[in-house]
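R.M. (postdoc): so does anyone remember the format we settled on? I'll just put the structure tokens first.
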């Protein structure tokens, strides 16, 4: 069987702030967005909290006066968050979270049709029996993509399509699609897992138990760790470390339960030699990454994101010992990525004419397993 992972970076809609030329372009606004939603959760809004809310909303021009700008929108459902007296500065009307119902949300825009179709073409090139998908909007969107877009470009659809909504309100969840003979027989979400610092997973560590065509069991732990795109680097790294520790604990529990064929798979947003990866590839870990496996056939580039440099190795297929012994071959599919400023660093699909046509900034990883 062939197992693959692919960060598709949304299929139909994507937040405008996450669809800019570089992460740096939207970093400040994303940080403001997160801070706004953190502040409005307080039970009582102190004068300092109100001042900070107003300061951020002024900085995001249009948000305070019009309730929205190009990237962020205030959803004021019930009660009153803002008070706009005539000829006077806007004030925060709510005294705390209990005085109103609402939130701030990111404004989305359609993904270019050519990019969506090229995503389907990459999936066709992968020809996976089981595909783990990262950054899909929701199950209905994933199902529509599977049934409508893939057939449009001549790619065979999957029989089973599943996605559990995670903790990220931007619509970047993890899911699984599998062929008819690879049934999903059990699912378990970890969105509510907590430690001393709070909720652990930015999205989820979704467990999917797959029954293979040979009657074996494959257990997937599908992940998308905390992004490097915004937030203080040290705090983001600490969050990824917490996530890696919890995934390691889940993995150890499942191996102790008797699961032989276990995979930690997805976009972990960290390079192998960074300390947040210690629980998964060091510290007594028994997991082996497909890119470090003797049967991996690479293309000379060590990374999986962007130009494929060493500092952009973010995607993983980490296998338990017994599963690692079942590897027949592994590889990377980079033809959906626009490489370099002019797209000339490595081959890409002929239907990718410019950067906006790219299927993703992530290459896909795959492994052939004898199970």
């Amino acid at each position: 069987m062939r197992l693959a992972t692919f960060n598709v970076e949304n299929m139909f809609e994507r937040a405008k702030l996450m669809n800019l030329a570089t992460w740096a372009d939207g970093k400040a606004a994303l940080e403001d967005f997160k801070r706004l939603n953190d502040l409005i959760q307080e039970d009582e809004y102190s004068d300092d909290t109100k001042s900070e809310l107003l300061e951020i909303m002024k900085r995001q021009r249009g948000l305070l006066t019009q309730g929205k700008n190009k990237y962020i929108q205030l959803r004021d459902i019930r009660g009153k968050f803002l008070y706009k007296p005539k000829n006077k500065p806007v004030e925060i009307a709510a005294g705390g979270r209990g005085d109103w119902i609402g939130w701030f949300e990111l404004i989305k825009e359609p993904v270019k049709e050519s990019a969506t179709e090229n995503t389907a073409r990459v999936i066709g090139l992968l020809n996976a029996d089981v595909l783990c998908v990262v950054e899909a909007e929701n199950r209905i969107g994933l199902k529509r993509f599977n049934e409508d877009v893939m057939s449009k470009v001549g790619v065979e659809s999957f029989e089973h399509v599943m996605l559990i909504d995670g903790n990220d309100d931007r619509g970047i969840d993890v899911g699984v699609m599998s062929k008819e003979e690879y049934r999903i027989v059990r699912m378990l979400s970890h969105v509510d897992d907590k430690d001393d610092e709070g909720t652990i997973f930015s999205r989820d560590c979704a467990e999917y138990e797959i029954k293979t065509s040979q009657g074996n069991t494959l257990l997937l732990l599908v992940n998308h760790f905390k992004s490097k795109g915004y937030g203080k680097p040290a705090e983001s790294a600490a969050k990824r470390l917490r996530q890696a520790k919890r995934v390691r604990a889940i993995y150890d529990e499942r191996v102790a339960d008797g699961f032989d064929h276990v995979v930690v798979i997805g976009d972990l947003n960290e390079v192998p030699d960074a300390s947040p990866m210690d629980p998964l590839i060091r510290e007594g870990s028994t997991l082996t990454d497909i890119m470090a496996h003797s049967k991996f056939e690479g293309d000379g580039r060590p990374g999986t994101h962007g130009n494929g440099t060493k500092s952009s190795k973010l995607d993983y297929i980490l296998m338990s010992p017994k599963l690692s012994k079942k590897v027949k071959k592994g590889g990377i599919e980079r033809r959906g990525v626009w490489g370099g400023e002019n797209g000339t660093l490595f081959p890409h699909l002929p239907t990718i004419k410019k950067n906006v046509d790219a299927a993703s900034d992530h290459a896909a990883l795959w492994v052939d397993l004898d199970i």
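R.M.: ...and that's the designed sequence above, right after the tokens. Also worth knowing: The chain is about 25% helix and 25% strand. Residues 2-11+111-369 form a domain with the Deoxyribonuclease I; Chain A fold (CATH 3.60.10.10).
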